[in-house]
Amino acid sequence: MRNDGKTRSLTRQTIGIVLAAQILCTFLLCGAALLHEWHTRFRAFDVRIQGRSDSLLGAIQDAEDPEDNVTIDPTELKIPNEDVYAVYNQGGRLLGSSADAPSSLITRGKDGFHDSSEDRTSYRVFQREALRVIDRVENGGVGLRRPVTIIYASPEGHVWHEILGAVRFYLFAIAVAAGLSFAFVTMRLRRALRPLSDLAEEAAHISAPSLNFNAPASVLQIRELRPLALVLTDTVARLREAFAKEHRFVGDAAHELKTAIAVIRSSVQVLMVKQRSGDEYRAGLERILEDNQRIEAIVAQMLQLARLEEVKKANLAALDLGETILSVVTQLQPIVDEHGLEVRVECSPKLLVRIVPEAAQILVSNLLLNAIQHSKPDSQVSLSARLTASGGVLLELADKGSGIGPEALPHIFDRFYREDTSRSRETGGTGLGLAICKSIVDAAGGSIEVESTVGIGTTVKITFIPA
Amino acid sequence: MRVLVVEDEVRLAENIAGALRDGPSYAVDVVHDGEDAVNLCQAGSYDLIVLDLMIPKLSGEQVVRQLRTARYATPILVLTAVSETGKTIDLLNLGADDYMTKPFDLGELIARARALIRRGKGVSEPLLQFGDLRVHTGEQTVECGATRVELSPTEYRILEYLMFRPRTIVSKRELLEHLYDFTWEHHSNVIEAHISNLRKKLRMTTDEELLETLRGRGYRLASS
């Protein structure tokens, strides 16, 4: 994962999203309100203009002239001052208009509504045909029909003013509502995201000296965080175990090595404490050499163990375990003879196991040496290897030795564990041999078991998975 | 003085025991595990225990705890491979009296053993004095007035033991227990012979009868 040092706050990001959503919402609502207001207000405006043109029609009267013309009497007319009107007769003669009516507005055009602007003011212009009947009484109730054309214009500024006022009100109301909901969301969000910071805080306490992680209850209650917290708890616990195991191993190794070094140092000091004969010095030096071999053995085996743990299982060719067994037995024959033992080997052909060749050698020779060391003189060690029903390989090694006590049996694969209460020179063990065996078998994906009866003997059974 | 060495590495135990026998001529018993250590402490009387920390059956820590819980007061010198301060603090708090980190110097081990034994007997000076008699525990020499008294190792050990507890009666059995390790055949007449030789040598330098024999009870350093 790349980390360029910049961090983002989840809380801030979420609040930002909410804020953006609310601003967008506000704009949409305001737009909708604007449209709606525009539509309804202009409809009402049109109706109003129509009404005013009606009252204009009412103001058209008989001119009382010989042609029975009509004229307009504006004295009775109650219309806003800024409105503009004009009335034409059928012949197109201007009967009357509002004072200072701009000619562009009152020029006749098509009937109906249209927009026009004059002197930077936009007007709504309405033109209609109307019929004025005069002299009804004098003509027997029928009257004279005088068609007229009415043009009525009113500035739109008022309507726009009203629309903007309404929109301003909506905007204010929405802003207040959004502000309140934003404050509420922010508050709730901080509380809802608290488990995240709890988790981070708890995780921050994890360190090499204190590998502890207790998932806070608040985190475990969150469905999304629970798996993470549980995985973290489990991982830290396993890490702690692994660390403790390593720590123990380092402690044990330090003890073994320091003790071995202490032996050499004390042996030298004992030799130097007084003047001795040449033979005594020689014997002393031989003892020191012997002590040194023990350190060498411990160091060599510790390195072996470390190396074995690094070996990867991938790309391993299968080897014939039977051949390994025979070569190890041949190698160790002098030691077998020295102890007056007989090793009986029984191997089926083609025992294929996926294992590092060097590791297989170490495994068989460690097991065999162990059996030799614990066997009674003139007894028999039997080593057999055969295929199992599932196609794996079963390696079995039985000795007629002193056996292992039930209290020691669970610990024999522990590093530096020794069943003897004292590190006697006779057996010469470092306490790592069986730990190495287990490590090898584990790496090869096999299993190792030990059965033992005190005074009768021990049987080691190793099962390898099919190659 | 009798010392118990608890160490599971046979060769190291041999070397420590050898150094303690040859140097300050202590009687030394060796065991290789914690259980034997506790059992021997309960049975025998030791003036010092040299204890390895990592031993089979009972760990060194458990041994210290068990002995101190049972009010066993003998000084304990712990041998440890760990040099972690926390661990050594724990050990000292449990009741150990001193510790040495492996690998250690045998000379230093002997010096610490001497100091611990002396302290265990409530004495701070390496020079023990009683009347005209002076015992240098470091060099293992004895003087009476201005005259040097030449003693055999066993005679010296008897005198040193008595000098640590002047005016108190020390039984023959106690002397045997503190001066010989368990491989020795206990013969009380051996002690009697050494006491008699010691007394003769002391008489040559002083008129006072310093070493008293109380029949059936033991011996005592006393001035008349």
The pLDDT mean of chain A sits at: 84
Q: How do the strands line up in the largest sheet of chain B?
A: 2-1-3-4-5
Q: What is the alpha-carbon Rg of chain B in Å?
A: 18 Å
Please state roughly what percent of the residues of chain B sit in beta strands, choosing from under 5%, 5-15%, 15-25%, 25-35%, 35-45% or over 45%.
15-25%
Major sheet summary line of chain A: 5 strands, antiparallel
Largest interface: A-B, 29 and 29 residues
The proportion of residues in beta strands of chain A is 15-25%
Q: Give the CA-based shape of chain B.
A: elongated
Task: State the major sheet of chain B.
Answer: 5 strands, parallel
Number of helical segments with 4 or more residues of chain B: 8
What features would you describe in this structure?
The complex is a heterodimer of chains A (467) and B (224). In chain A, 49% of the residues lie in helices and 19% in strands. Chain A is of the alpha+beta class. In chain A, strands 4-3-7-6-5 form a 5-stranded antiparallel beta sheet. A 5-stranded mixed beta sheet of chain A has the order 9-11-12-14-13, covered by helices on one side. In chain A, strand 5 and strand 6 form a beta hairpin. In chain A, helix 6 runs antiparallel to helix 7. The longest helix of chain A has 49 residues. The mean pLDDT of chain A is 84. Chain B has a 5-stranded parallel beta sheet with strand order 2-1-3-4-5, sandwiched between helices. A 4-stranded antiparallel beta sheet of chain B has the order 6-7-8-9, covered by helices on one side. Chain B has a two-stranded antiparallel sheet with strand order 10-11. At the A-B interface, helix 6 of A face helix 1 of B.
Which descriptors would you attach to this protein?
heterodimer, A: 467 residues, alpha+beta, five-stranded antiparallel beta sheet, five-stranded mixed beta sheet, 14 strands, rod-shaped, B: alpha/beta, five-stranded parallel beta sheet, four-stranded antiparallel beta sheet, 43% helix
